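2024-03-11 09:14:02 INFO queue: dequeued item C6 transcription factor, len=717
2024-03-11 09:14:02 INFO validating residues
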Amino acid sequence: MDGEPSAQRPGGRARSACDLCRRKKIRCDNAQPACETCSFGGVQCTYTEHPSLLQKSLRDQLLDARARIRELETQLTVRELSPDSGQREHGTSNERSATTRLPLFAVDYLPNTHSIDASLATFQAEIAHCGVGEPGSTKRASFFSTVYQKTGAQLDLDHFLASAARSLGFRGPQSRLGLNRSLSPTWPPKPLVQYSINYYSRSGLYSIFPVANADALSQLIEAGVLDHQDDTVSASNLACLSAFTAMMSVMHRLGPEFVNAEPDAYIQAALGLLPRLLMETPTVRSLEAVVLIMTYVMPSGKIEPGQLLLSLATRMILTLGAHRMSVISQPEGRHLRALFWFCYGADKNMITRYNQSPHFTDKDCDLQIPDNYVLSSSDNQFFSRPLSNNELLFPSDVRLSLLKSKVYHLLYSRHARALPEARRLQYIRELDQELNDLKCTFPASCWPDLFATPSAPNYTFHDLSMRGVCLHLEFYFLLGKIHEASPSLKSNSNSSSWSILPSSAELFHQESRSILIYIRHVREFLNWHTFWIYAQFLLTGVFSLFKCIISYPTASSYENDIQLLQSLVDMFAELDHKESASTRGQYPPFYFTNDSALAVYLLPPCWSQMGDHRSASLSLSAGLRTQRVSSIEIQNSGTEQACNISHSSTLPGLNVIYPEGTQLGETTSSIDIAQRIFDEEETGRVRTDATLPGDVAASNPNLGDLTWRLKKIKLRS
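2024-03-11 09:14:37 INFO prediction written
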C-alpha cells in the first residue's frame, strides 16, 4: 500500500481510509499490502495526503476579496472597452463624440498641479535655480550661512516650506481643485480634433507656436487615423493628434468648444504612445508629437521631464536635418526649420534659466534667421495684434536666443570659467553692450525701461501680449545673468559668492528691482495657468533683491526695496482673494511664493536697526488666510514685555507675553513669532498662556483660518 495510513487530518485524527474507500464512502480495513475493497477491485491501494486547510484570518479574507473585486473590475473594463462593445457616449450639450479609455496605459503620468506634495516638490526644485542652490548643496549652505552673518537670523527655507505645506494641508486638501480631473488616458473626440486644427489654422497661432502642420494633420483625420486606434496605425500620428488637441484645449480652455475637454487625459494618451513612437523611424509627425508634449509639460514647472523631451526632439531634428538650411528643399522643409528654431529657443532658455548644458551646438547648426521672421523694429512682438501664419514670431525673440547662447559660451561654460579674470570682465562689458544694442533695435515705445518703473501708468500695459511681457522679463533676466557672472571671478578665493563687483552689483540690484516692479504692474497676467511661466523671474528677483538688501543696508534705495518686497506679499494675497470663494487658497504655489517672500522680508537687518522710534511694515501670513489683523505693537511694560495685536471686530484680543529680560530688538524676535505661529497652526490651534520667547498667548485657542496683517511695529528697548 502506497502512503502511510496515519496521515494527519485537519481535525487532528489520523486518516484511515484509502482513496478508493474514501471515494465510495465505505469503511477501509487498512489491510496490507492492499485493503479488501482494492483487492476485490484489482486496483492499487493508495493514500493521497491532502494539505491542511487552515482557516484564514478576517484580514486575509478581506484582502482576497479586494483582489477578486479588482480582477473582476479589470475584466469588466476590458470587456466594455473592446472594439465590439463600441465607444462610451458622453452626453454633453455640444454633442461630444465618444471617447475611448486606454486600459493598457491607465497611469497618471502628470502630477496634479493642485496637489500640495507635487507643488511643494516643484517649488523646491524651482527655487534651487533662483540663487539659493539645491537642498543639501554647498551653495544652499553658503546662502544660509551668509544670511546668518548678515542678519543674525537662522533661515531654513526647506523647513519653512515644509511647515507651510503642512499648514496648507491642515485646511482640507480633499476640497482642493483638480482632484476630479480625468486620470485615465483618453483619445480626444474626432470633432474636437478637427475643430482644434481649424482654429489653429485660421487664428494664426502657427506664428508663435509653429509646432504642427495643420494641413498634414487634416490629412490624418481624413485618412481615419482616429478610427483605428491600434497597432495598425502609426504611434507618431496618434500621439501627434492627441498632443495637439491637448495643447489647444489648455490654451483655449475658456472657449465654449473646449469647456468639456480633458487636456490632461489627452496628453497622457500621447505619453503612453512614446515607447512605440521611439521604436519607429523618426518623421515630421513624431517630431511634432514630442515637441507638442514638451510644450504642454514645461509651463507646468516640470523642468526635468521637459529637458528629457527637449533632448529627444533635438536628436530627431538632427536626424531629419532640420538644423541645416539644405532641408528647405525637402517636403515640409520650411516647417522643419521653424521647428528647429522653436526648439533652439527652448534650449537657450533652459541654459540661461537652469544652467544646463546646451543640446544644440551653434557651430553645428545653420543659424540663418528665417526670411519671414518678424523685424526687431516691429511692435507686433510686444503688443496684441492679429496673427498671420506668414510671419513667424516664436514664443521668444530669436535674436535674444542667439545672445543667450553667447552668454553661456563666454561666461558659464567650462571653458569660460577657466579664462583669466580680465578676459571675463571684457566679455561681461561686451555682452552688456550687445544686449543694449538689441534693445535699441526695438521700437522706442517698447523698450523695457519704460515699463519697469514705479510711476509707469497702468494703461501702458493694457495692450501688451504675453509674448511681449515675457520678452521684457527675459531682457532683464539676461542682464542679471550677464552681471551675475562677475562673482565667479573670485571663486578661487575665500570671499563669498556675494562679492559682486561694485558696477555689476549696482546693475544686478537694478535688474532685480526692475523685474519685481514689472511683475507688480502685470499682475493680471498671473494666474494658476501661467504661474510657472513667470515663477523663476519672480523668485529670482525676490532672492536677488534680498541679497542686495542685506549686503548694502545703507544704500539709498534700502527703504524702497523693503516696501517693494512688502508689495509683493500684498500682491499674492490680492491674487488669492480675487478667486471665487470656492477656489480661494486652493493653488499651493501661490501660497508657497507668498510665504517665501514673507520669509526673506522678515529677515533684513532693518528690524535690528529700528531703535526707539523706527517703524516699518510687516506682512505675516503664516498659512492663515481669511480675517485680518490691523496692527501689532511690541513694548516694554516694567517687568514684562508684551505684544498687543489689534484686529478686526470679529476676533477677540490677542496678547503675546514675554518674560522679563527677553531681547526684542533682535531680528530673531519677529521670525520666532512667525515660526511659532506656523508650528502651532499646523495642529489647528494656537496655545494659550504661553510664556516662553516666541510663544503666543491667545484668548481664542482656535484661530481657525485667519490672515495676519501685522503693521506698525514699534520696538522699544
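2024-03-11 09:14:37 INFO annotate: The mean pLDDT is 74.
2024-03-11 09:14:38 INFO item closed
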